[in-house]
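Lesson 9: reading folded outputs for more than one chain in a single document. The general rule is that every protein is listed as its sequence immediately followed by its structure tokens, and records are never interleaved. Here is the first one.
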Amino acid sequence: METYINVALSILAVVVTFFSYYLAVKNKIEEAAKDAINAAEDLELIGQEKMQIAVEQVYDVIPSMMKPVFPKSFIEQIIQEVFDKMAEFAEKQVEKERNKNGD
């Protein structure tokens, strides 16, 4: 019985460690996505070309052993989510400025 508990705890430790690493890498991806979006905005390219450049920049940040867990399609989704949040924030700031100047 004790052996089963030790095996279960060992497996749980591996799963928790992997999940923690996954979250750390995902956070790193989101930070890299912000930088890649800002860099891509400076380029004179259309939307999809900017997206592909941003995806490649972010994909290069991912450790090679985690690349199968984070395919490029997933990276593209994260970049789009980050871009949408940045655009929403910018719109709120513009609206605040309009309201401030309109008062």
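And here is the second record, again sequence then tokens.
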Amino acid sequence: MKNYLISLMIVFTLSACASLPPLQEMSNARQTIAAAKEMNSSAEQSQKIQEAERLLSRAERRMEVNLYESARQDALRAQKEAIEFIEWAISQSADKKVDD
């Protein structure tokens, strides 16, 4: 009986963690998008940044209706798109310095 109760407590704890709003993921995505825009003036026109903003907006809508796992995945994807843009911008900057 004791093992059953411990198992049950673990399941409840894990499920509670999974159902928490993805506040940190949303914040990380926002900060990464902002960093990309600050770093490169063409970020606003970038398809990657536009996609990141679209995903972040969708994540916000999903959070409003308590679809936390879907919102979490969208926020993570938004951050990934912004990171890929930053990596691209850095490589372009490095290539430009080599040419100079």
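What the second record shows: The radius of gyration is 19 Å.
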